[in-house]
From TrEMBL:
This is L-alanine-DL-glutamate epimerase of enolase superfamily protein. Coiled coil: none annotated. Residues 227-454 form the Enolase C-terminal domain. It holds the Pfam family MR_MLE_C. It comes from Fuerstiella marisgermanici. Signal peptide: none annotated. InterPro entries: Enolase-like_C_sf (IPR036849), Enolase_C-like (IPR029065).
Length: 488
């Protein structure tokens, strides 16, 4: 690494804790049903070379069912391992001795990711180490808090701090020589776009009509698809599909099309879109092509509304049976999701025919920015997806989406499944959490750090935010893990 900038920071302290969140309605994906999660909440304190200090905050759901869907590790064990991994990296980030830019700190600490994944799994007697995706999710709150603190110590939004003026290394240091002389300011926006369409999730268990409702929660939120469209003016619907039952998948899209057509007609909306998410369950590209052809023959207008296909086959890119997506991509953009864990994976997916990239804040601010740069370099379709992120984790996701050129839409489904942590944040950012005309208003996400203000109640409870009696949210599960630099 080069000599360093006057703007570099070092980490003084890392705090981490876990916050239980229950769901108002179950969410099914990848063949499993989720009805609760934990937030990993992190606080990072930094110091600049000039001696100024600031704190940053990051939060992200554990999301182990999505990040680690292993037949060899029970979900509860995977969840525990991801928490332990986050705790370990609180220690490792706090012990990083150098002044640097957050991109460089994360990149260098990340050299320990795979080693610690094996050590944690061995300590917990698990059958396999944490996979790379679980590693990224577990450390993403710390990465976010570090970027947030860096912005706050310089009293700027982090998207103003990605140029050669602040970064010690260009992108070729992190990616390859195609990016020589380039910095992330080339691939990001200084100011957020004014608004973005929201992708609303239509889960496999979600009721489309009143006839499908078996248990309506005791709240004032919509429940059926028609109710959600009417309430939020939705224009983008993400449809969860089975991937191993072609008849059900086609029928589900046609049923959504019928409900959406009726609901949109009532509000005078003529244009809306779908994305289709098979959660890797398809066994081949041919399945996807047959699915698209059958949708097109049954309802051409529904086919036309499909904006993209989300990674339909296995995330295992090295398998001999890894499906090639070239023919699917001729019909619709096919985006990388679960397989996108680093730049090398993105290159491999391009070889396999993927034509788009799904960014996710849960993979870390650093890795998301690298993926966004590569996707733009290679002229790929771009969207930002969700890990059912509530509260500040959703604000982080929206800020990321609003500062990347060409984002088609941003997914946000915590408001459907676990809205409790949103309540306090909604008071300051109502236009982000209260959807109007199908859009999230993002023009205010230009404040210091990650882009949004940290209220006093975050600063006072840095690693376990409570929600004042909201029944969807329990208090912090355990004591805060605190690591302070030993100056001796």
């Amino acid at each position: 690494m080069s000599k360093g900038k006057a703007t570099d920071v070092r980490i003084l302290n890392v705090e981490i804790g876990f916050e239980a969140v229950s769901f108002r309605a179950p969410l099914k994906f990848g063949g499993r049903v989720v009805d609760h999660t934990y937030l990993i909440n992190a606080r990072v304190d930094v110091e600049s070379r000039s001696g100024n200090q600031a704190s940053g905050y990051g939060s992200m759901p554990v999301g182990n069912v999505w990040a680690w869907p292993s037949p060899n590790v029970e979900p509860a064990d995977g969840e525990a391992a991801m928490k332990a991994y986050a705790e370990k990296f609180a220690e490792l980030f706090a012990s990083y001795p150098e002044f640097a830019h957050p991109l460089e700190i994360h990149f260098n600490v990340g050299a320990e990711f795979h080693h610690q994944a094996k050590k944690i799994s061995d300590r917990l007697n698990l059958a396999e180490p944490l996979p790379q995706l679980a590693q990224l999710v577990s450390t993403s709150p710390i990465d976010a808090a570090l970027h947030d603190a860096y912005g706050r110590v310089h009293k700027k939004n982090i998207f103003h701090l990605l140029s050669a003026e602040y970064c010690n290394e260009d992108l070729s240091y992190f990616l390859d020589e195609q990016f020589a002389g380039e910095y992330l300011d080339k691939y990001t926006l200084r100011e957020p776009v004014a608004k973005l369409p929201l992708y609303h999730l239509v889960g496999a268990l979600d009721p489309l009509t009143d006839a499908d409702v078996t248990d309506r929660p005791d709240d004032d939120l919509p429940m059926t698809l028609g109710e959600w469209i009417a309430a939020d003016g939705l224009t983008h619907l993400k449809i969860k599909l089975s991937g191993d039952n072609l008849d059900w998948d086609v029928d589900r899209v046609l049923a959504v099309e019928k409900i959406a057509t009726d609901a949109q007609a009532k509000r005078g909306c003529a244009e809306w879109f779908y994305s289709c998410d098979f959660n890797e369950k398809c066994d081949s590209a041919e399945y996807v092509i047959e699915f698209l052809n059958r949708v097109k023959s049954s309802a051409a207008q529904a086919y036309d509304r499909i904006q993209y296909i989300e990674q339909p086959t296995s995330r295992d890119l090295e398998a001999a049976s890894a499906a090639k997506m070239h023919d699917v991509a001729k019909l619709k953009p096919v985006v990388i999701d679960e397989a996108l864990v680093d730049y090398e994976a993105l290159l491999k997916c391009r070889e396999l025919g993927y034509s788009g990239v799904a960014l996710k804040a849960c993979k870390g601010q650093t890795e998301s920015l690298f993926a966004a740069a590569a996707a733009q370099k290679f002229d790929m379709f771009l969207c930002v997806q969700d890990l059912t992120c509530p509260g500040s984790s959703f604000l982080h996701s929206c800020s990321l989406a609003a500062h990347i050129p060409g984002i088609a839409a941003v997914e946000g489904n915590a408001r459907q499944y676990c809205p409790g942590p949103n309540k306090k944040w909604r008071k300051r950012y109502p236009a982000v959490f209260d959807i109007k005309d199908g859009n999230i208003v993002t023009d205010r996400l230009n404040e210091h750090g990650l882009g949004f203000h940290l209220p006093e109640w975050v600063s006072s409870i840095p690693a376990g935010v409570k929600d004042d009696g909201a029944d969807q949210v329990a208090t912090t599960e355990r004591i805060v893990k605190k690591t302070v630099r030993d100056e001796s």
